[in-house]
Design brief:
The protein is mainly beta. The chain is built from one helix and five strands. Bound molecules: zinc ion.
């Protein structure tokens, strides 16, 4: 999966606020993600993100 800053990743487990979608703020060995529902930010290991990814919406270009 080609994760890039600004993409929206959909994870299997919902955040307590009910949203499955997270904006990618930083990529690397750990990702920083922001919940699109409530704005909460988390750090997650890349392996965990990959394991839990259901879909990826690429940042709109242009
Ligand atoms: Zn949330």
């Amino acid at each position: 999966m080609d994760y890039q800053v600004g993409d929206i990743v959909k994870l299997k487990k919902p955040h307590p606020c009910g949203s499955h979608e997270w904006e990618i703020l930083r990529v690397g060995a750990d990702f920083r993600l922001k919940c699109t529902g409530c704005g909460h930010q988390v750090m997650l290991a890349r392996k965990l993100v990959e394991k839990n990814t259901r879909g990826l919406k690429k940042k709109e270009e242009g």
